[in-house]
Amino acid sequence: MPLDLEFSWVDYVVFAAMIVASFGIGIYHAIKSSGNNEEYLMGGHSIGVIPMAISLCASFNSAYMILGIPSEMYTYGTQFYLMIFGTGVGVVLAAELWIPVLYRLQVVSIYEYFELRYKSKFPRILMTIIFVLKTVLYTALVVYAPTIALSSVSSLSWWVCILVLGISSTLYTTLGGMKAIVWTDVFQIFIMFGGILAILIRGLERTGGFSNVWDTAEKSGRIEFFNFSLDPFERHTFFNVLIGTIILWGSPYVCSQYLVHRCICLESLAKGKLALYLNYVGQVTMVTLVSTVGLVLYSYYLECDPVLANVVSKRDAVIPLFVLQEFATYYGIPGIFISCLFSGALSTLDSALHALAAVTWEEIKGFEMFQKITDAQETRITKALSIGFGLIATGLAFLCRNVGSLISLGGTLFGACMGPMFAFFLMSVTLPFLNLKGSCIGLVISQIINIILSIGSVVYSVPAPKLELHLTNCSMFGLDLDSFDSNQTSNALTQGQYEAEHNSFLAIFQLSYNIYPIIGFCLTFVLASILSLFFGGDKDITQDDEPYFIPGAWKLYNRIREVPKGSNLISNLDGHKMEPIE
User: Fold this and answer.
1) What is the pTM of this model?
2) CATH assignment at residue 124
3) Does residue 261 lie within any of the structural domains?
4) Mean pLDDT of all residues in 508-517
5) Of 4, 15, 45, 265, which one's alpha carbon is 20 to 30 angstroms from that of 468?
């Protein structure tokens, strides 16, 4: 590449300052901490609503999204923007259905609920295993995503970038616990928004303003929100994005420990709900900003797509390329942008590692070998688990080197697990007739089928047709077009070639990635319902089970069936008192 685009020493200093500040927050809270494991895991229930809402928002906005969504808008258009509505549905379901149940039960691991609901450890262990598998794979992708940027704009190798991110996030998470995570997230989200706003403002200046950017995108077919096609092979349509992202992007607010855990760390249910809704305002703002950045970048590189010109190898690297081109003489600005990406990754990683440690500890603390340990020893074990999961995620990140689109890969990983998980969560709190055997067999079968489909979709995937991209004038890169095909518009299949690839045998593996979580959800719902009825339905349900269901579902159930009375004492399986039912 003829251009000399590199980090300056000032950029390295800015980036290092962000890492040091994150460590400093972790060390500060480690010094202030009482060493109590409850404070390490739950923050002593003393964190405010605003910091917790900001932390929720920061945890959701990883570098995977900051790079992936602009790349999506740049390459495929705006249909994916509907994911904000899918996310909103998940937030409402969590706030109004799921979080109230957890507050009544006063649990640390949200998967404890399933032991209480079904009076067996098996569903609890099963859901914990699925969560750990999903989260470890996702954190590996989160670790890898910002290395695309840093290795593209600096002399650092991609593997060095992975080590820096993985080790730093693991260490400061381990040091300070929940309070360190929340306050580091507050610090990092300002860096994230600052970096994105700097890119957006500069890009709009260089492309003639928002109106010009919108017109350019519209002429190229990138402005699309209401594609009502029912073709299951089409990558993004109105229906598969809206329904699929309820599961892919909304369900984490119900199913994922690292998001739900923050809400139950607050001192009241009302504050937990408020934190969720405030977080969603931040989500809409961030997704809107990064989506606009994607359209701005398309307008900026309208005459010379950097990937077709072999300037960068991935479209996820187009943002860092733009930053170096436009801010090369503004020392420190590229460093702020890379800090923005790393902040996004760190805020997700610290939450995920903390949640993995908390969930795992809740599962193993009942072992005989841990019965007589002190609270300080509990904290050390939990910290050791954080380190262990951090090292695993960092190691797996090295396997992400040859992935395609970050959005597609993330959707595939989430789709393999989230559909069945989401269905199991919602059915458990709303359908009292669901029983242990039927629900668990249905979940296992659906999960196996969904994993097979997701793996097949990676192995037999067909590149989706990209919208028009050009190579007509690459003077900005100092490139001579004689070495390129000037009529080249895309390096993907045409729509006709794409449809021809869908032969009868492999077609099931070539559906839109948004379809697989929908399949998983529907399979789990149908199989768990039918099998529960086959195995006797609600014969084990008593009045003592009321706290495990949302009030509306329980009232409706009582009208339909007369529920036998159980014991007068309502308590969970660990023997600690539940909160009164509202």
Assistant:
1) 0.83
2) 1.20.1730.10
3) yes
4) 88
5) 4
What is the spatial distance between Cα 109 and Cα 387, in angstroms, rounded to a whole number? 19
pLDDT surpassing 70 at residue 201: yes
Query: Could you give the 3-state DSSP secondary structure of residue 271?
Result: helix
Q: What is the DSSP string of 152-211?
A: HHSSS-HHHHHHHHHHHHHHHHHHHHHHHHHHHHHHHHHHHHHHHHHHHHHHHHHHT-HH
Determine the Cα–Cα distance for residues 571 and 67; give it in Å rounded to an integer.
47
Tell the burial category of 44 from Cβ atoms under 10 Å away from its Cβ (0-12, 13-18, 19+): middle
CA–CA separation, 527 and 445 (whole Å) = 8
CB 502 within 8 A of CB 510: yes
- Identity of residue 13: V
Residue 144 in any domain: the answer is yes
Q: Residue 508, by phi and psi: left (phi above 0), alpha (psi -120 to 50) or beta? A: alpha
* Ramachandran region, residue 332 (left: φ > 0; alpha: ψ -120 to 50; beta: rest): left
- In the predicted model, is pLDDT for residue 216 greater than 90? yes
Please state whether 310 falls in left (phi above 0), alpha (psi between -120 and 50) or beta: left
Q: Is 27 exposed, middle or buried (0-12, 13-18, 19+ CB in 10 A)?
A: middle
For residue 198, the tally of other CB atoms under 10 A from its CB is: 18
Domain range enclosing 164: 9-30+42-79+100-234+251-364+382-401
Whole-angstrom distance, CA of residue 342 vs CA of residue 23: 13
Cα–Cα distance for residue pair 465/183, rounded to 1 Å: 43
Structure confidence by residue, pLDDT tens digits, 325-355 = 888 778 788 888 777 777 777 777 777 887 8
Length of the chain: 582
> How far is the C-alpha of 118 from the C-alpha of 570, rounded, in Å?
15
- Rounded average pLDDT over 7-17: 81
Tokens of 235: 């990558």
Specify if 284 maps to a domain.
yes
Flag whether 194 is in a domain: yes
Quick check: 73 and 213 in contact, CB under 8 A? no
